[in-house]
Amino acid sequence: AELMEDQLLLLLESLDEKIVPQQIILVRKYVLCLAQNEGGHFSVEAPLLSFSREKERELTVVMVEMSGVTLEKDGSAVCTKEAFTPLAALYVSLHVLDLLSN
């Protein structure tokens, strides 16, 4: 799977905001939950969705939702098993971007 052009732009913005490491942890959690549960509703720890600025949180939410995951205000997520491939592509892209930027 490939990322959409809008997601690529959000990745670059995430790099500028220096939030890629936190996004990697969050997206990894979603990928692991999806791999185990094949979709559905699950929760993540609140700190994973807490960013120092609202803009950073919104950026992350939009990018993750483009992969087929709906994030709720309480930190829970809803997704289908079809979201696994786009979410895995996002995870790999975040990881590569992080490695290349260091």
TrEMBL record:
It comes from the Eukaryota. GO terms for biological process: defense response to bacterium; pyroptotic inflammatory response. GO terms for molecular function: phosphatidylinositol-4,5-bisphosphate binding; phosphatidylinositol-4-phosphate binding; phosphatidylserine binding. PANTHER family: GASDERMIN (PTHR16399), GASDERMIN-A (PTHR16399:SF18). This is GSDA3 protein. The gene is Gsdma3.
